[in-house]
Specification:
about 250 residues; mainly alpha; about 75% helix
């Protein structure tokens, strides 16, 4: 067993967990890292779900400890992601590893572009009551499918949908987001497990890092330091995407 690889996974997982809770895109670090450590696409995809699931248990617990918890609304929103997540995960275990890695590379490049050209979220203060737009429901079904299939960057999609269609502040957005991802990740993880696409050693070590980062990330308000995180994440994603496309 290579303990350096395990230490790398824990470190990358810690960074990813923190980023996932406060914004999104942490899987754009963990998933390519798993592939670089020798896992095929579907196996890396399934292994990453172990970390995502455990990370969000800790994140939800941390939000709740900080008096941010709306079980009824979060549960209702989560239910709409489940059909899409099951379909997405089923597709993910059926495609070839080569095709998966090409899709992943394309998504990573798109995320880099979006990081530089997306508008910053405004400050809405503390909004406690959601104003649901009916479009949130089909949006959640679609995002659930993408999350079940790939997961990378799904946090950005949830943030956009929840922020613009529920009209709530970013802390509330992240509170709902981590709960939703926790719920739909479970059936997706089961599908990957049943198809033999989980490396438990890598998954649990990565999960420990994600949980550590997710726990502390839930304490941090979504403000300040955004530009630095975007630049660092963009550089890392670009290097990994170029590697996946075979440029070096």
């Amino acid at each position: 067993m290579d303990y350096w690889n395990l230490a790398l996974l824990f470190g990358v997982g810690s960074i990813a967990g923190f980023i996932n809770v406060n914004a999104g895109g942490g899987s754009s670090l963990t998933l390519p890292t798993l592939i670089f450590l020798g896992l095929e696409g579907a196996l890396a995809n399934g292994t990453n779900r172990v970390a995502i699931f455990i990370q969000n248990i800790f994140a939800v617990a941390s939000f709740r400890r900080n008096k941010m918890f709306q079980l009824k609304t979060s549960s209702e929103l989560s239910l709409f992601t489940l059909p899409g997540a099951v379909l997405g995960a089923t597709l993910a275990v059926r495609i070839s590893s080569a095709l998966f890695e090409r899709i992943l590379g394309g998504v990573l490049i798109f995320i880099v572009i979006s990081l530089f050209f997306s508008r910053s979220y405004g400050d809405r203060g503390s909004i406690q009551k959601e104003e649901k737009n009916w479009l949130i429901y089909p949006a959640l079904i679609g995002i659930g499918f993408y999350g079940g299939f790939l997961q990378v960057g799904v946090g950005f999609l949830f943030m956009a949908a929840l922020y613009h269609l529920l009209k709530v502040d970013l802390v509330t957005v992240n509170m709902h987001k981590v709960f939703i991802i926790l719920i739909y990740t479970l059936p997706a993880l089961i599908i990957f497990m049943l198809s033999g696409n989980v490396n438990w050693t890598f998954g649990l070590v990565l999960a420990a890092g994600n949980a550590f980062g997710g726990w502390w990330g839930a304490h941090v308000a979504v403000k300040g330091g955004e530009r630095v995180i975007r630049i660092i994440l963009a550089v890392a994603i670009t290097i990994m995407a170029l590697k996946l496309f075979g440029f070096f």
